[in-house]
Amino acid sequence: MAGQQAARGKGSAAAKPSENDDFGKPGPPLSNRSPFVIGFFGGLGLLVAWFLYGLFLIVGPVLLLIVVAMFLAVGLNPAVEFFMRRGLKRSWAVVVVITFVVIAIALFLLAIVPVVTDQVTNLTNSAPGWFDQLQHSRTVERLDQKYGVVGKLKKYVTGGSLGQQVFGGVLGVGLKILGFLANAFVVVVMMLYFLATLPRVKTTLFRFAPASRRDRVTKLGNEILEGIGAYVSGAFVVALCAGVSSLVFLFIVGLGQYAVALALVVALLDVIPMIGATIGAVIVCAIGFATDVQTGLALVIFYVIYQQLENYVIYPRVMSHTVDLPGLLTVIAALVGASLLGVVGALLAIPTAAALVLLSREIVIRRQDAR
User: Fold this and answer.
1) How far is C-alpha 161 from the chain's CA centre?
2) CA dihedral 354, 359, 365, 368 (to 10 degrees)
3) 55 pLDDT band (50/70/90 cuts)?
4) CA-to-CA distance for 369 and 371, rounded, in angstroms?
């Protein structure tokens, strides 16, 4: 019996390999260099990248608001530190700075609204006279006889299409204004948070760097942030010069009733690199021509001279202590930023370019010189 059981055990043990052999011998694992593996994981990575790109497009506007809020917080930080050196705590210094900012915005709105209202009223009152002149024009009469322009215009005005377009336009403008106010509220709230906790935010961000490079990263980061703050302060000084000079000259040429409002417009638009000063000058000159031709010509001459003075004297002297950036790179950065993100891009472009130049000089060029 024992021999038979041993024989059965040996037979069953010998039968196991034969059963496994029925499914074939296992082959070697797939190589990491296999075309299938490379194609599969490459396609999977492409799908993940496309998914993340779609998420970025959705979250992009929010990220832009965060960047703008951080930029404004860094720009206002020198003012906060100024009050902190006078003995105020950071929270109270933030309150003082924000109070000044809110008062400045409120004064601008209170000053510009009457000007806009008066100009719209004058335009509305002058429109019927312009229309009567057009009706008596020989050119309009010939066009009306040949193409029926007046009849088509009356039909268009009295029809429903004009009302729908006006309503849609007003509704669209209203929605854009609501969106702008919502974005402004979000930016202000985040700016307050960043401004109050900026030292803690910087420390947290710098800790992501390796310990061996954290000291260098901290120094470079602080240098970049100080440059951004100095740039904002310099832009404010340049805008203040433009506003004060415009205020004085507007009183000289006899536009004292609009001088404060127009000077505020020039000062705020002058913050926008390259095109802001020109836009402000065009607005003021247009109002000057609407008032009197000689006043308009005097304003044109004044702004042509002042912009040369600002471009070649005031701006270089102020900004030479804020951002170390050649003039050509300043123009290129402003153009690229404006083409990508409009006014916001133009505002962020110059300090961003200065930061990139600093990083290139301290990291890339130094590494190349060491070889």
Assistant:
1) 36
2) -160
3) confident
4) 6
